Amino acid sequence: MVLGRQFARLADRRILLAYWPWLLVLIGLVLVRVSKGAPIVDLYALLSRPFWPGTAQSEWVRQAQRVEDQQRIAQLELQLEQLHQGAARPAEGAVGRAAGIRAAVISRRSEGWWQQLELGAGSLQGLRPGAAVTGPGPAALVGRVVSVTPTTARVALLTDPASRVGVELRGNGSQGLLRGMGTSRPQLQFLDKDVEVQPGDVVVTSSASSLFPPGLIVGVIQSVDQQAVPAPQALVQLVAPVQALDWVQVR
């Protein structure tokens, strides 16, 4: 009886020694499933840090931010002058918009260049889901943060087929819905059948949008289909060069 028990224990140990690598793999897969891959993404960000984009576009972002700050100061001065003259109507454009957080683009989704970006900044740097992401320049919208880990963030681009953004034409205020098409140019579906639109018109985020601050530049009308049903449609050329972005601003 004693020999039988010892043999059984020895057999159990042999089975454990033979299959322990597979048990570790199974445990690892369960952990990845539960954490949704966050540790792997953070590890990738840490290992790829030496290969992140250089400082050239980062300096471009800083210069663009200085220009935007100067414009904001000029708008404030104009408002003060209007107040002194008895006109309380604010100047066109948002004033006091947060400068945001600069973040490096560390990867793009391999099966869809135009769909998602991975940023080298996360919750530790103050990023939160839902934040607007803009490219270098005067607040040109790129997309929004959809998920974060401690050191990374995932951005759904305006070109993502699941993207829907309320926009309007600068000047006449015609409202529409910008839809990602999985290509470099999203489609703008207008809400009004009798909209006045032509190539070259500037598209900005809608003042009625609940996802983004109003007045962020989105792009320029490239072509218009007036015969579309139930309302005209247009293709929009985005201002931010998504295919060349190395650094972004998270606002």
Description:
There is one protein chain. The chain has 251 residues and is α+β, with helices and mostly antiparallel strands. The chain has 2 domains: 51-157 and 244-250, Beta Barrel (Thrombin, subunit H); 164-240, Rod shape-determining protein MreC, domain 2 (Thrombin, subunit H). Helices cover 29% and strands 27% of the residues. The protein is built from 3 helices and 12 strands. The chain has helices spanning 2-35, 38-48, 56-84, and strands spanning 101-108, 116-119, 132-135, 140-148, 153-157, 164-169, 175-179, 187-190, 202-205, 217-225, 233-238, 247-250. The strands form 2 sheets. A 6-stranded antiparallel beta barrel has the order 1-2-5-4-3-12. The chain has a 6-stranded antiparallel barrel with strand order 6-7-8-11-10-9. The N and C termini lie far apart (73 Å). 29% of the residues are buried. Residues 87-98 have low confidence and may be disordered.
Key descriptive features of the protein:
single chain; 251 residues; alpha+beta; Thrombin, subunit H; six-stranded antiparallel barrel; 3 helices; 12 strands; globular
